Amino acid sequence: DYGMIMAVLGGDDAGGGVTWAPQVIEEAAAHGLVLGENGVIYDSKIGEKLPHNVSPMPLLNEEQLKAFPEVPVENVIRDYVARYWDLMALATHKPARVIGESALLKDKPGFEVEFLTRGSIPSDVYSTDHHEILMPLRGHWKFSWNGGASVLNPGDTCAVPPGLEHSLEPSMTGEVSLYRICSTDDAAGATWVG
């Protein structure tokens, strides 16, 4: 079966807005990836090197690690996991709110994530004042705008600028699912727990 790992980072905080655990930096290094102090990831397997004025991101020491809470497993399952088939059921008649202030996974990271399937939204034209990212998981979606249309496939990423009038609908029969990410005015930062 097709698998996908995605990271959605709030605002303009591309790798620099995330604090990496020491074991993540070590595992990344085993795959040729180096995180610079500047928050940029360099891939040594394709010949990328740290610039001469950039050092590797230092590992957190024991004292720094103590500042991060250890979340009990029962809280991880309850507060930080959204399962695909649960989302499919919740999205039957309206978008399932996955990440957001009043979503399944409560957080305010500078964006909100919704899960869509057939019937979640009408095929009407709409626009938003925020950036919108569309990421299909299964099936194919028709994305239309004034002057064009495109089919979005699993693994595609479509960036929709603020103010663009567009529509979105499944372009096939059968199972379809898609993440819709919309920027908010919240600042990116540590996980918000309300």
Automatic annotation (TrEMBL):
Entries under Gene3D superfamilies matching the protein: Jelly Rolls
A GO biological process held by the record: regulation of DNA-templated transcription
Pfam families registered for this protein in UniProt: AraC_binding
UniProtKB keywords: DNA-binding
GO molecular function terms attached to this record: DNA binding
TM stretches of this protein: none
Domain AraC-type arabinose-binding/dimerisation: 128-174
SUPFAM superfamilies hit by this protein: RmlC-like cupins
InterPro entries per the UniProt record, alphabetical: AraC-bd (IPR003313), RmlC-like_jellyroll (IPR014710), RmlC_Cupin_sf (IPR011051)
Keyword DNA-binding: yes
Keyword Oxidoreductase attributed: no
Name this polypeptide is given: AraC-type arabinose-binding/dimerisation domain-containing protein
